[in-house]
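Example 9 (inverse folding). The structure is encoded as follows.
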């Protein structure tokens, strides 16, 4: 069993900040990449940002300069600091982990956390 538990979502005014956390637990050999994805109502899920175990990061153009991803490899935890939030950032945010679980390669998703940005 592998679980990803997200926390930190909520309601914030435009221009505000939120910090999301995601902790992975269970039968984990190693996690290569962790990331955050989001899905707004009526839209497809999209990549927000990812980070490898070595610290390499990738960001969607829409969040560059505003969002920062970080990771604690010792705790299998990933964070997302979101600043200068905009109403367009409103979505359910999902954490994803890719790596070796139960001895084989795979990926897991968290249950999602709602982020709502009011104008």
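The amino acid assigned to each position is listed next.
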């Amino acid at each position: 069993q592998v679980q990803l538990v997200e926390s930190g979502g909520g309601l914030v005014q435009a221009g505000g900040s939120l910090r999301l956390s995601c902790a992975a637990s269970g039968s984990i050999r190693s996690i290569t990449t962790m990331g955050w994805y989001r899905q707004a109502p009526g839209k497809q899920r999209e990549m927000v940002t990812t980070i490898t175990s070595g610290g390499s990061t990738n960001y969607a153009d829409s969040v560059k300069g505003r969002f920062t991803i970080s990771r604690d490899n010792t705790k299998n935890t990933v964070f997302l600091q979101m600043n200068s939030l905009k109403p367009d950032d409103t979505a359910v945010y999902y954490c994803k982990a890719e790596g070796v679980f139960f001895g084989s390669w795979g990926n897991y998703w968290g249950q999602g956390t709602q982020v709502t940005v009011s104008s």
